[in-house]
Fold prephenate dehydratase.
Amino acid sequence: MSKRTCLYLGPAGSFCHQAALLLNDDFELQPAATVAEIVAAVESGNADFGLVPIENSVDGEVTSTVDSIVFNTVDVLVRDEVVVPVEFDVFVKPGVTSITRAISHPVGLAQCQRYIAENSLQVETAASTSAAVASVAQGEATDIGALASPIAGALYGLVPLARAVQDNAGAHTKFYQLGKSIRARQAGREYRTWVTVIPPTNRTGILGDMLAEFSSRGISLSSLSSRPLRADIGAYAFNFTIEGYVQDEQVRAALEAIIALGSRVRVVGSFPEWAGVGVVGAVIGLPGVGAGSKVSFSNQLDVAVEE
Amino acid sequence: MSKRTCLYLGPAGSFCHQAALLLNDDFELQPAATVAEIVAAVESGNADFGLVPIENSVDGEVTSTVDSIVFNTVDVLVRDEVVVPVEFDVFVKPGVTSITRAISHPVGLAQCQRYIAENSLQVETAASTSAAVASVAQGEATDIGALASPIAGALYGLVPLARAVQDNAGAHTKFYQLGKSIRARQAGREYRTWVTVIPPTNRTGILGDMLAEFSSRGISLSSLSSRPLRADIGAYAFNFTIEGYVQDEQVRAALEAIIALGSRVRVVGSFPEWAGVGVVGAVIGLPGVGAGSKVSFSNQLDVAVEE
């Protein structure tokens, strides 16, 4: 049997490619140009699996991946997640020890402002971080470095001049692996289940009623977001990510109770929580509550109003 | 008195610049390089106001604007919103009637794939859509067009060869105007209030309790999202956007009741709903529930599990 294919948001050397390698599946990895193309290929069966950025993407995609999956597919499922630290390295031709120019995708240049300023580098743009690396590898110049993901240099025969030159340490980006089935439950791993629910009414209280079906069964919420539905002004869908596997008795009972309230439910995925490097607990790539934040949550309801 | 300043995510000719012009305030508009810089300048008082993309940004920013405002400032307030249709035009030197090359930010190129393919154009990248327009204006070549926002061409003395060449019609992007005060209530306009709440416990039921304080007072929810707090694993903040002005009696009573539950509340903004061109009701740039979506919300809890 030939290897099953997994598309990722390319080109080769992208952060999504790095995420695909971290998953370490025995799949044939193939780059694709857009999230929409990947989602459609998994839906149609042209690809067995797909890997897509789900939050802010350093590969520069702007489409809402969540909306693409929920509203543009019928039976695509999220079966795994991967979290990748956002690290930009500077890649040069072997032997080069100093540069005067940096090239990258504009997002890469924007994320490495400090390094660029400290080294007084001139900047040039490329269509992707991988294209930047390729242009350095294929060009004659030795005074230029490409800002790209840690895996990109070796793919094109370049070496790192400096590592982790991004302005913000500690940022991560999350990817979901898509398929037509979920993985069977493995012992010893924590699971999450993503369901999207269209409530029977836009009465605000209905959301509380649905949440009570989770809380009364001891099911914790991992994330929640609302999305307006264009076709029906004023109507909302809710994305719930809850802790547990979709076949767990309590999870199933909660979802059945939510359906009994009159809601329409779609199970969008059920997958093991990422347990790889670079992640502290469940919290990913978000700012902390520092001293300023504590002040700002001061229960002050009298805000300044312009004269 | 000199004019008050409003920073926008530049360079001049960006979609954020277009949004600033649509607001039609009597402010001196100045471009800034990043959302973080704009938020910090408003916080410090170096700028009176700032305009920032709040959702997917076609100007290519990836930082989470919501997190920047909520967690990195103490008293910045959202005082207005603007919604701009995502339209890319093709700008050329006056007199040019055909082109063989297109230049833009990679996001712009990605959004105009169909036009590029139909016209068999070679593509070149620039650091921003405005930089693309500037390079066409300043270069000698007449076989090249820049893909950029509708306002960008005139700023650099170019003319449109074609209009609205983006692949997806109907997409919009939303911007928030930031300041240190909110606008006084104007008669005849609908308002929204954004509050971020850190609940006293991560018990799932607490969210239902908070929602009940809104629903029992007839206050509708416009959007809701959860954000994990890095400093406190397992703890969440909730962003609620509710209908109404922060000084409305019912809104204030609901927020006081939520504080009485033990929550910490920050009023992040209170602003008139955008009533300008390009918007149908409250629903912005999101996919509809088409035939496929209806099938997908089928209450089917038995998803395929891999053997």
